Amino acid sequence: MRKLILIPLLLVAILLSSCDEPFSPKGKYLERYALFGIMRADTNLQVVTVTKSYDVEGLNPYANKKDPFIKNCFIRIWRGNDEVHILRDSATVRNIDKRYSDSAHFYYTNNFTPQKGDELSIECLLPNGRRLKATTKVIQPIEIDYSGTDLEIPVTDKKFAQVKWRSSVEDLVYSPQVELYYDKAVNGRWELHTVKVPMKYAVINGHKTPIWPSPSHRNYVQIDTVVVGQILKSISEGDPNKSHYRIRALIFSIYIYDRNLSAFYSSSKKIGDEFSVRVDERDFTNIDGGFGVFGSYTEKKTAILFTEKYIRSFGYVPLKTF
Amino acid sequence: MKLKKIKLLFLLLSLVLTSNIPAQNTGKLRGFLTDKRTGEALAFGNVFIKEIDRGASTNTEGLYFITGIPGGKEYKVTFSYVGYKTKVLKIFIAKNKITQVNVALEQGSIELGTVEKIGKKTVEKNEANIGLQRITAKQLESIPQSVEPDIFRSIQTMPGVRYTGDISARYYVRGGASNQNLVLLNGTPIYNPFHAFGMFSVIDPEIMNSAEFYKGGFPAQYGGRLSSILRIQTKDGNSNKYGAKAIASFLTAKALLEGPIPHGSFIFSGRRTYSTRVLKKFLNGNQPPFEFYDIFGKLTYRNPGFIPGAKFSFQGFSSLDRLLNDNPLKEDFKWVNNLFAFNWFQVYSGPLYSQFTISYSQFLGELIPNFSKARPKKNKVDDISLKMDFHYLFDNKNEIEFGVQFQSLHTILKMENQFGINTKIDNSGAYIGTFFKYKFLQYENFGADVGFRADLKGLMDAGDFFIEPRVNLTYNVFPWFKLKGSWGVYQQEITTVSEESEVISLFEPYIIIPDYLPVSRAIHYIAGFEIQPLVPLTITTEAYYKKMNNITAVNDNKKFLEDKDLLRAQGEAYGVEFSLNYLTRPVTFTASYSLAWAYKEVNNWLYLPRFDARHTINLSLGLNLGKGWRANAMWIFGSGLPYTQIIGYYDKLALGDFHNQWYIYDSYLPYAILGDRNLGRLPDYHRLDLSLAKKFDFKFVKVDLDFSILNVYNRKNIFYFQRDTGEIVNMLPFFPSATIKVEL
Predict the structure, then answer these.
(1) How far is CA B605 from each of CA B176, B496, B640, rounded to the nearest angstrom?
(2) Residue A13: band (very low, low, confident or very high) from pLDDT cuts 50, 70, 90
(3) Rg over CA atoms, chain B
(4) Fewer CB within 10 Å: C terminus or N terminus of chain B?
(5) Binning pLDDT at 50, 70 and 90, where does residue A321 land?
(6) How many angstroms separate the CA atoms of B63 and B47, rounded?
(7) Looking at the domain that runs over B25-124, which CATH code has it been given?
(8) Does residue B697 register a pLDDT over 80?
């Protein structure tokens, strides 16, 4: 019996000396490649980056100080089967990522504006002979759903003004932005001004915090009309000459990500919850032969106007034409 | 081919039925074994007649039935149950009659810690029950607790059962996924039986009377899952006097009320969280704003004047978990389980008893996005079931059991995957099935449980007209050496759509398997032996092979709406388990070792699932120190679980809102590149838990104090590592906890 009791005690004694074991989650390093290209339908400047993977001592990837950008790639973009654009390399000053000491390198073309519905292909020939390929389709325009969209402010029976839209493609990510457009008389001349409008204000950790529209799958955006009133009031705060302000409209600008960019955005932002833990989730890529994304986005704009009475209630001048 | 099988079946059936030669001049003894103080059924107790070397175990209703007793004689019948004083009664057995004797046993004194006088082995010499573990409420008390006593956590310490983290009560049985385990509360399925990210089960151990856990080879009355069955039977409530219990742990407070009603009893219990601070240790310092409660109520009615031999039970169970963020930029969660059931247990005038159950089980899980980027998620499961089982006992000890089951299941799932792709599934199905089994117990050294389950109408179209044969055998080579074996085919038509890569999962939705996939099926082969060289010592060994066909895997490469949510996968598991039990009055010692392999194949890619542990050792020592003191120690070892290694990093575009900035030039963050799935192995897992408990028995009040320490030597068992940073997240550190129970 005594021997039986001794067994676990003996085990404790042995194990107390080995409570922590060295462990590295890393396996053998294998070189991989990444290509990022997001085609904009609102400009003729298109930019692509190509990098290779890297490894570091330990587990802090920020310890890598060597820019993984791959020079001397031969990159072509096709629109359909006919039109091809060859990208050149260049560099610019780093504004965000300061890990690397040299400039931010990239490939570009300034002679290509994708159109809605375009089928685009990219091929990148790396200096070592490997190829990265991808295709994407610029998304068709969305349609404003006027049955769910308010045309003017104030709205009746609701505390918010809403713009709703519909798309023939599901699961897209939309990035809306709402701005108040107004004119201000300066030295006798009207100057155009804009101010961003949050969806609402919320008290977070005891502070009044604006909740801005952000990219999501929602096919609508709602703006608290109280917030609109507050913004309208704030633009002339301290200025007794309210007639120096001419209010135009609330302008809704919606970026529509294509299917590849939408999926990439969703996987990057880990849209879900903060408590679930996924240890080896898949990384979205549509790049054949590597990581990254080749996608595009387009833009749709619409407006909600103000009633004359509403504008005059602030002392401003209404301007319905825009 | 089908006709041939049916002919064979009928031939077998007629052989079986004609083998029961009517016994002249024999009598039968039956009755209920109950607790004298509470009137609760004593499940798995033993009744034994030494003169004829014959006995029976009580079932979960406390019913025992001994047939074929030479009549016209008086016998000394021994009634025995662990922790209770053994009773020996002189009972006259009349010829060709059923003698009914209900016996109430008195609990043993705290000081003596009474043990059972008759071993299970004496009574169940030829019971074909490989893979079955029985747990009583008393046994649950002897396991060191992590905050809350939990039936699921006690299961995790059994050989062949694995878990992937201290924080989770989810369990994996013999290489099967967690969705292959069926949990039944009084015969009614619970689909998501977990509180708080799977940390605890929703079933409060205070309401539990007994549990049966089949690790495999489960007999024909159970179906619908591929790997395991956990059947929990609740208490009926004290039918003799009113009583109340109040229990507090660091996490929850709970109360239980019970007492007699005319011709029956009631029991109501409720538990809710009052602080979640203690869970910080479970969640790496993160204190989630969640709360949960569960309530249970049961009314039992037995009135011989109404229907002799009948027992009616009405029960309701509800559990709610809520995660409410006070930040509108974060999403909220809600999980609800609702169960309602009516149960009619009937003992007839002949050697027959039946069980009729009609039940409704609902699970609802919801994500409410608020102003977060998340989209609403919803999973709703509505299950209406009707079951009728009949159990007939022959004079030659053989038994027949058959039954029918109707099930209507409706599952709704609305969710998005990690790439933001929506899934909307709304499936309904109706199941009609029947089972039949014959238990050969007439031979001294041989026992068999042979039967089949006929799925006449499946939840899925592909599940129609399928026969699941089941065979369990036992052969006593020597009185101290028993050979056991099992073979069976199993079918499952529901699954969960949750990623295997989720080590903590908030949303694990159940759906009927979509019709683009075949039905999941498994075959179990189990063989083993049991040695009892000394009365208190039992050594068992079981080897198993399990082949799982057409199981499901979440399509983690679903990038677009047209891609399927689930993929067809195959699974294979095999291993061997050894266990040793040494049970005496002051000391109980159990040791078990499992050697196991598990594989899963998806799209011709074979990998080890996360719960594949090669070696597992459990050592448990319980000491009854007298005067109400009890001490327990448990040491657990598991070889490292598979994980996916980091094979480098790349700079990934960190997208923001393009309205504010054009990110393409230099907005990049390092991102870990993972190698092939689960090729690495985490370091070995081990931990020692200790507990010390004291019972105080005052005149009107009983007080139980329990103090437990988990991970006594503060082993840093790795749970997972953060992919972004490589930071290692450990499981539970040194963790003391205490509970107090006051019983009136």
Answers:
(1) 18, 21, 22
(2) low
(3) 26
(4) N
(5) very low
(6) 10
(7) 2.60.40.1120
(8) yes
Length of chain B: 744
Residue A29 pLDDT greater than 90, yes or no: yes
Q: What is the pLDDT of residues B542-596, one digit of tens each?
A: 999 999 999 999 888 888 888 899 999 999 999 999 999 988 878 889 999 999 9
Cα torsion angle, A263, A267, A269, A275, sign? positive
Q: Where along chain A do its domains lie?
A: 33-138, 143-256+300-318
Mean pLDDT of B700-719: 89
Q: Scanning the structure block, which residue is given the tokens 């319980």?
A: B622
Q: Can you say how many angstroms the Cα of residue B258 is from the centroid of all Cα atoms in its chain?
A: 25
Q: Which residues of A fall within a CB distance of 8 Å from B508? A: none
Cβ <8 Å between B659 and A64? no
Closest CA to B376 of B416, B432, B433: B416
By the CB < 8 Å criterion, does A230 face chain B? no
Distance CA B141, CA B306 (A): 38
| Contacts with B659 from chain A: Cβ below 8 Å | 175, 177, 253, 255
Q: Which residue ranges does chain B devote to CATH 2.170.130.10?
A: 132-231
Domain A33-138, architecture per CATH: Sandwich (2.60)
A173 touches B: beta carbon within 8 Å? yes
Burial of B383 (0-12, 13-18, 19+ CB in 10 A): buried
In CATH, the number for domain B132-231 is 2.170.130.10
Band (pLDDT 50/70/90 cuts) for residue B495 is very high
- The complex scores an ipTM of 0.88
pLDDT single digits (tens) A246-276: 999 999 999 999 999 999 998 887 655 666 6
Is the torsion defined by CA of A51, A55, A57, A58 positive or negative?
positive
- Most A CBs within 10 Å: which of B323, B497, B668, as the mutation test of the A interface? B668
Check: CB of residue A53 under 8 Å from CB of residue A28: no
Q: Round to whole Å and give the CA distance between B62 and B40.
A: 8
Architecture of domain B232-644+679-743 in this structure: Beta Barrel (2.40)
Residue recorded with tokens 């007492």: B259
Q: How far apart are CA B714 and CA B142, in angstroms?
A: 22
